[in-house]
Design brief:
By secondary structure, the protein is of the alpha+beta class. It contains nine helices and eleven strands.
Length: 257
């Protein structure tokens, strides 16, 4: 289902000056992001760029043996397919919708054309790239150093930051894919989180959390990544322009406490 773009709910788009947004707006279409939908597969070319307004999307690294592990996550602060402007290449990861939502979609060719005309759009791509690299670096270190229980708590918090309410719509299969572990391991870890009160209930496809207790269980990576997001994204109170790299202003996400 598609309809013409009528409003701005994505932070990257909302932060663009009106003239720069005008280069994209005529070609943006609202699309539904269905849970578990694959927006682009590893090895495929990006022919569309998605700007989520709601929901959450994970970037998955597919291993030769069929296992997967998440490298990063975005919501309404980010985009899928933006990096295609850096040159013709195939996607290194698979983008999977973890929480359903809506997005503004534009063809990659239209986005590339606007990118060539706008310093603000170029800065948006730089900002988004810095955020993804930061996530990738932290997730790599976290996977090597921290226990699966702490890592699951971190992923649940990341997704919770991008949705309303305290019920995270994730199946055990999705959690096993995010963490790169077997479903039996997920079952054991969820049981531990329920025993500690960090997870209130885990019905089929729904995980109800107690955020304060979940934060106590998560490793320090969650807070470190949250603080770095605050520094990277100057999107809440300032519009994007051709600001120099390193500009640090308002946060991108309304992180809960």
């Amino acid at each position: 289902m598609m309809k013409r773009h009528t409003s701005v709910g994505n932070r990257l788009l909302a932060a663009l000056p009106a003239a720069d947004l005008g280069l994209l707006a005529p070609y943006l279409q609202h699309v539904l992001l269905k849970q578990d939908a694959v927006l682009v597969r590893s090895g495929d070319r990006n022919d569309k760029v998605y700007f989520p307004h709601s929901g959450a999307i994970s970037f998955m690294l597919d291993m030769p043996n069929g296992q997967t592990v998440a490298t990063s996550l975005i919501g309404h602060e980010g985009a899928v397919g933006m990096l295609s402007v850096l040159g013709p290449s195939r996607s290194p990861t698979t983008a999977v919708v973890r929480v359903a939502g809506i997005a503004s979609q534009i063809s990659a060719s239209r986005f590339h054309a606007a990118f060539g005309q706008s310093d603000a759009i170029k800065y948006a791509v730089q900002t988004h790239t810095r955020a993804l690299l930061m996530q990738l670096q932290h997730v790599t270190a976290c996977n090597a150093l921290h226990a699966v229980e702490a890592r699951m708590a971190r992923w649940l918090l990341h997704i919770h930051d991008r949705i309303a309410g305290n019920v995270v719509p994730l199946t055990q299969e999705a959690l096993s894919e995010l963490l790169g572990v077997r479903r039996t391991t997920v079952t054991l870890v969820v049981r531990k989180l329920r025993a500690s009160g960090a997870v209130k209930s885990a019905r089929r496809g729904l995980v109800e959390i107690d955020r304060p207790r979940l934060k106590e269980t998560a490793c320090e990576c969650y807070e470190a990544m949250r603080c770095k997001y605050h520094r990277i994204f100057p999107l809440d109170t300032h519009r994007l322009s051709s600001r120099p790299n390193g500009s640090e202003n308002a946060p991108v996400l309304n992180y809960r406490t």
